[in-house]
């Protein structure tokens, strides 16, 4: 039997999506399948290299692709990566997201739709609850303590199912409609919002020039390569507002007032009241 290959591609400024990618890799290893893992925030390679590997595998591979949910959608680097994949390579795919307990939005639906448009068969999907990455200074952030052992167990179960499907003669895919789990009204409202539009409402960053020693760590930890020095840090248009720059500044020279956005996040979580748990689609 042809050896199966697994490609695990993700973007993860705060580490929860990376954690899920790690669980996927480990579970496949336990099943005797080595995964090729790619962090879109760190590497220079992207869609072309992924497509080359998928083509090389001649239909014997599965692409796991993971994104955090930002403003109800998958993040731009992930959607751009899917958009750049070669069409009709005949492979299988599994989109997965981590979400911060506000709303998982239409991220899985949009990733699934684009993957199907590219000719992939979806063998499963997952939305995994995670600590809200904009609420890290709070004592009790939304999604506190997640992903936890039970979330990891669910991810392992997803991998076991996908493994079995990959080894069956006629692997059964999931339907795109399985991923359209939001109400029709909410789905329409979520189509209208975007990270791009929300950027104007994101809290500003103030650089304390007495503390900033231009060490450039903020630039190094930016997954979008969006920080320039002039001579103090400035944040370019590609910034996705993960705030890694602020979180990891060793001098605490970047100040942000999150009070308004935390209130907005809590209001939106109450408005959508999506059950704060993880779910796998098989
Ligand atoms: C700019 C921004 C927007 C976010 N939007 C949402 C959202 O719409 N719904 C939600 O549940 N969580 C939202 N989150 C929280 C992340 O989806 C969640 O914390 C995710 O696990 C982060 O993934 P990472 O740790 O891999 O970066 C947002 C976080 C950021 C930074």
Question: Key terms for this structure?
Answer:
two-stranded antiparallel sheet, alpha/beta, 18% strand, globular, single chain, Rossmann fold, eight-stranded mixed beta sheet, binds flavin mononucleotide, Alpha-Beta Plaits, 282 residues, 10 helices
Molecular structure report:
The chain is of the alpha/beta class. It folds into two domains: 5-184 and 276-281, Flavodoxin domain (Rossmann fold); 204-256, Alpha-Beta Plaits. Helix content is 34%, strand content 18%. It has helices at residues 16-30, 47-56, 76-83, 107-117, 149-166, 184-192, 195-198, 217-220, 244-247, 259-272, and strands spanning 5-10, 35-39, 61-70, 73-74, 92-99, 121-122, 125-129, 206-207, 227-229, 233-235, 254-255, 279-281. Helix 3 (76-83) packs parallel to helix 4 (107-117). The protein is globular and about 65 Å long. The two termini are 24 Å apart. The model has no long low-confidence stretch (mean pLDDT 95).
What's the topology here?
Elements: E1 5-10, H1 16-30, E2 35-39, H2 47-56, E3 61-70, E4 73-74, H3 76-83, E5 92-99, H4 107-117, E6 121-122, E7 125-129, H5 149-166, H6 184-192, H7 195-198, E8 206-207, H8 217-220, E9 227-229, E10 233-235, H9 244-247, E11 254-255, H10 259-272, E12 279-281
Helix pairs in contact: 1-5, 3-4
What would CATH call the architecture of the largest domain?
A: 3-Layer(aba) Sandwich
How many discrete structural domains? 2
What are the secondary-structure elements, in order, as H or E?
A: EHEHEEHEHEEHHHEHEEHEHE
The general outline is: globular
Helix content: 25-40%
Q: Could you give the distance between the termini?
A: 24 Å
CATH superfamily of the largest domain: Flavodoxin domain
Largest sheet: 8 strands, mixed
CATH class of the largest domain: Alpha Beta
- Rounded mean pLDDT is 95
The secondary structure category is: alpha/beta
In DSSP terms (H or I, runs of 4 or more residues), the helix count works out at 10
CATH topology descriptor of the largest domain? Rossmann fold
């Amino acid at each position: 039997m042809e050896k199966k290959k697994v490609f695990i591609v993700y973007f993860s400024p705060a580490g929860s999506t990376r954690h899920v990618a790690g669980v996927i890799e480990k579970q496949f290893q336990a099943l005797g399948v080595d995964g090729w893992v790619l962090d879109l925030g760190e590497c220079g390679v992207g869609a072309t290299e992924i497509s080359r590997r998928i083509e090389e595998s001649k239909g014997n591979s599965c692409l796991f692709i993971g994104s955090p949910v930002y403003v109800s959608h998958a993040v731009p680097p992930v959607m751009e990566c899917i958009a750049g994949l070669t069409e009709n390579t005949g492979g299988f795919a599994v989109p997965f997201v981590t979400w911060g307990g506000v709303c998982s939005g239409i991220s899985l639906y949009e990733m699934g739709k684009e993957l199907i448009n590219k000719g992939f068969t979806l063998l499963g999907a997952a939305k995994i609850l995670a600590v809200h990455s904009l609420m890290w200074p709070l004592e009790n952030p939304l999604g506190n303590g997640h992903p936890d052992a039970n979330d990891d167990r669910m991810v392992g179960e997803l991998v076991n199912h996908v493994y079995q499907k990959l080894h069956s003669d006629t692997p059964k895919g999931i339907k795109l409609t399985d991923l359209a789990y939001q109400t029709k009204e909410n789905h329409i409202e979520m189509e209208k919002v975007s990270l791009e539009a929300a950027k104007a409402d994101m809290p500003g960053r103030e650089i304390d020039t007495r503390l900033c020693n231009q060490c450039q760590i903020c630039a190094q930890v930016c997954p979008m390569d969006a920080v320039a020095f002039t001579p103090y840090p400035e944040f370019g248009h590609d910034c996705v507002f993960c705030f890694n720059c602020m979180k990891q500044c060793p001098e605490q020279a970047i100040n942000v007032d999150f009070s308004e956005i935390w209130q907005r996040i809590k209001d939106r979580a109450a408005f959508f009241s999506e059950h704060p748990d993880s779910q796998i689609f098989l």
